[in-house]
Amino acid sequence: MPQIFVKIMPLAFVFLWSTGFIAAKMGLPYIEAYTFLSIRLLCALAILWLILMFWKVKYIERKEYIFEAIIAGGLISGVYFLGVFSSIQYGLSAGLTALIVSMQPILTALIVRRLFHEKLEPKQWLGIMIAFLGVCMILAHKINADDIEHGLSFIGLAFATMGLLGITIGTIYQKNRKGDMDLRAVTFWQNVGALIVIVPWAIFYDTESITWSYELIFSLSWLVIILSIVTLFLLLMLIKQHSANQVASLFFLVPGVTAVFGWLFFEEVLGWFEIVAIIIASCGVLLARRIPKTKV
Questions:
Q1: Which residues have C-beta within 8 Å of that of residue 100, sequence separation ≥ 6?
Q2: pLDDT tens digit string along 64-118?
């Protein structure tokens, strides 16, 4: 793999992952959330199957490899998006939901330290704390007053926590799985896992009401091709090449990049305070992703 691609891959992932929130905001006025996610995953699976057929990639190998990919995908994409969309639906503000799931790098660091004895240097912990401070500053104005004045939605908090646990455990599980399947096939089976999680909610809770529009078609196309295929593939490559902590720390950059996109496309507020917060979060991520020097 070209070295330049290795270097830009983390930035490309953050950039593309952040566009997902903007694309979803564009499409959700025209379709219910779970139906939206289900159609997105079905379309992604159809395209991925054609890709596998064209390149003649083996996607039906050992059953345990397939099972591992389905479990990881069910957690990373299925449980995560189910938790995020449901928390907002049950009354938690988008800002507070984003703040909760942005704790993923902290939770990841604690879990891998406990289970896999993967220790971080003090500088890396400092980087994580600085990055989280930056995220809190970015999201501060997006947390609704209702969250504080009228009490938090317990169900909303539970779903947001579920989303946090889903992407955290899924990332760690993907990093430590034994299977050595082609990543294109893994991407296919991970979307299968996500679909298994989402479809029952679409069937039982949505009315399947859809208002087709150019905005919805563009949003759906972007989420299918860029998010469910390209970005998920990038995430799998990053997990394969880097530690779980290094990958998780990238998610601290997502709120800042999303804020910039919101300013560009939806005229959302992006003042000097938010710009400084983005810089702080970025510096924290750079510090957290530093690879400790081995002692000779």
A1: 87, 157, 160, 161, 163, 164
A2: 999 999 999 999 999 999 999 899 888 887 778 888 999 999 999 999 988 887 7
Q: Which of 42-56, 71-85, 104-118, 195-209 is predicted least confidently? A: 104-118
DSSP-derived 3-state class of residue 92 = coil
Sign of the CA dihedral running 170, 176, 182, 183: positive
Question: Following DSSP, what letter does each residue of 10-39 receive, concatenated?
Answer: HHHHHHHHHHHHHHHHHHGGGB-HHHHHHH
Q: What is the pLDDT of residues 134-176, one digit of tens each?
A: 999 988 877 765 565 555 678 989 999 999 999 999 999 999 8
Q: Which two tokens stand for residue 23?
A: 């694309």
Would you give the distance in Å from CA 240 to the centre of its chain? 16
How far, in Å, CA of 67 to CA of 173, rounded?
A: 12
Task: Decide: 223 and 40 in contact? Cβ < 8 Å.
Answer: yes
Alpha helix segments (H runs only) across the chain: 3-27, 33-54, 63-73, 80-89, 94-101, 104-116, 122-139, 145-149, 154-176, 183-205, 214-222, 232-241, 244-249, 254-266, 272-288
Contacts of 50 (CB under 8 A, 6+ apart): none
CA distance 193 to 253: 26
**C-alpha to C-alpha distance for 57 and 63, rounded to whole angstroms:** 16
Q: How far apart are CA 97 and CA 77, in angstroms?
A: 16
pLDDT at residue 293 in the model: 47
pLDDT at 154: 86
